[in-house]
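ok so I'm stuck.
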Amino acid sequence: MPKLLKVFTKHRSAWLIAIVVFFLRAGQFMTMPFFAIYLTKAHVLTASQIGVVLGIAALMMSGTGFINGLFIDKNCFKKVLYWGLLLTAICYVSFIFFVNYFLSLMILNACMGWLRSLMEISAMSILVSDVSAKELSLAYSMRFIGANLGVAIGPVIGAAMAMHNALNIFIVAGLINAFLAAIIYFYQVPPRSVNQAEPLKALANLKKILKDKMLLNMTFINFLLWTAYSQMDTTFPQYLTKYFEHSAIFFSQLMIVNAGICVLFQTAILRWAQRHSLKVFGMIGSAMFASAFILLAFNANHLGFFISIMIMSFAELFTLPINGLMVMTQAPKESIASYGGILNLGLLGLFIGPTLGGLGLDFLGGTRLFLLMSILPVYAILRYR
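replied:
not stuck anymore, here's the structure
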């Protein structure tokens, strides 16, 4: 912890990114999971339609990542982050006016995904460009901790508001993003955060990246793992409504468990992995993902869900942040955002996952769906090997 404080005393950008990511995750997790519960109970959309609406954001986030990365590399990180936050605030508030329209909800969440891609890549570019390579892992850890604190607090706020008027959470989330945009507007970006180098042409940059086998393999592994992991905040809330009366409260408790484990153990696991084999850690984490889904398939009760979420939380720590850090530390300085954009292609799993989850609940049932999801991390183990 003293080392983390030293990093953030020296680098103001690290503080900024941790705070921004915290509020972004809080806004995301106080809205979308409970929006799924609201749509399910109100019978506004089918489970399949809800899965598409929630997953379309990830499709746009992953599909626009490379183009966004090229754009960000040629522009000021701060300006891109500012406009992304401001437009996201407008999208959040707009959800209230189109709650009964499937196509409108799809378009709104698609815009949210595109904006989230711009914000995530911009934030990561600021962090990588302003923090020394020696201290980057600690700064990256704090960013991840901020994200998981947001995951913990967001559902608590969402659950409390969902008991009164679930749609008001979109107003709160919009205000949060507008407030963050104001902070970014007055924040002085360090000179290194603006890439002054002549940008590579898109085709030349793409050919160079396609030769990076490590990056491509990690992107595919992330796709498999994100597809499985996405069930946590999209399919789980719908599934819980079939078994628990107060599903919103129970879901928020599960998210607190997830975030608590990530906050307490993330830094230690990351440093431990760097001293040992990243490949072995990835394989162990993937095996944990598979075991968590198998447990869910045959134990649809309070204890089964709590144990599964605990296992899945550790699986997350053993895989996703380690994969991302390894890629970003090896990315060329002039193409930080472009590499981040390609890595974002793995987030396509956040679209495929909710879509498969919604279809699975409609046509297969929870048991078969979770058994199907357990196959994906098993294949990821083979990719790590």
